[in-house]
Amino acid sequence: MGSLFAGALILGMAACSGGDDPTEGPAAAGSGGSSSGGSNAAGTSSSGTGNVIPTDPDQIVGTFAIQIKVDKSMTAVVGQVGDGPVPSNLVWTEKSKEGDCRLKTPKSPFCEERCEGGVCVADGKCQPYAKPHSVGAVTLTGVKVEGGGSEIALKEIAAAYQPPAGTVLAYPPFGAEDTIEVHAVGADYPAFDLSAAGVNPIDLATTDFALSPDKPLVLEWDAAPSGAASQMHVKIDLSHHGGVKGLIECDAPDTGSLTISQEMIAELIGLGVAGYPSVVLTRTSIDTVQLDHGRVQLEVSALVERYLTTPGVVSCTTKEDCPDGQLCESDATCQ
């Protein structure tokens, strides 16, 4: 579900539709997608050294991401296809699993030989950065534009695709009853088509975001309409600003509620907490198409994020956020 690549592109190249940015505190830990999965495309082209991991044709090598950012009343649209997956410098291990949720911890692999132009993705294994490629003219349909219409000819800039400057998207730009389509005429790779169901913005009903090792976390939201294709991805990250020590990820049916057990919450808190811990809910609808070297996906989503509180932790961005006599440390906590 989701991807680091899609989230990074959305942060950098967003097409907005009204609303001011209400975000408080430092850059949020979760802008959508999975923190522990592989990434999807793009980066600086260069050949790696050492024992290079070959490309897996089943891996995601590109994403067209259309994401409703509910807290900001805006929508981001961006896409890119590369010659391989973007490597991750962390290896994630599943420590526990309960129902739809998993608790994972990261490890930084070691490569004795430096990975020039790439990343150490496993002990002694390098993977080169992917190079973005053109897929020709790309048309996006099903996303409503202010003033009428729902077809956008995406602009290609350095092999990345986004709406042309001045494009203002309606809000919300689509719903669960709509169909979102991407057509690429082809260039470096053959032509392809993607089609995914739209999603509704998330109406989060939960108001208690105080985490405790003594109680479960109950999340409630508006369920997707009957027959909708969407799923709900939940990510809880308590240590993003201090060097991530673990996270909880859940891939659950979009039925309107999810309970994360007291035992799993206690286990995550025990790994360590930094400033501005958060929970991110992402409603997703996905389609993929197979190319010779990997898969390209269309990810239609809606995202909400809430900061969490944990016992004994005061989050901060400056000294003024802290009680008298305490300073704001590099992990965004008062000490």
Average pLDDT confidence is: 88
The domain tally reads: 1
Number of strands: 19
In terms of quaternary structure, the protein is single chain
Order of helices and strands: HEEEEEEEEEEEEEEEEEHEE
Q: Look at the helices and sheets and give the structural class.
A: mainly beta
Give the fraction of residues assigned to helices.
under 10%
The number of distinct helices, counting runs of at least 4 residues, comes to 2
Measured by DSSP, the beta-strand proportion falls in 35-45%
Main beta-sheet annotation: 14 strands, mixed
C-alpha geometry: globular
Plain-language structure description:
The protein has 2 helices and 19 strands. The two termini are 36 Å apart. Helices cover 6% and strands 37% of the residues. Strands 2, 3, 4, 5, 8, 9, 10, 11, 12, 13, 15, 16, 18 and 19 form a 14-stranded mixed β-sheet that branches. The protein has helices spanning 4-12, 262-271; strands at 51-52, 60-69, 74-82, 91-98, 101-107, 118-122, 125-128, 132-133, 138-141, 151-157, 160-162, 179-184, 192-197, 217-220, 231-237, 247-253, 257-260, 278-291, 294-307. 42% of the residues are buried. A hairpin with a 2-residue loop joins strand 6 (118-122) and strand 7. The protein is globular, with a radius of gyration of 20 Å. It has one domain (4-321). With 335 residues, it is mainly β.
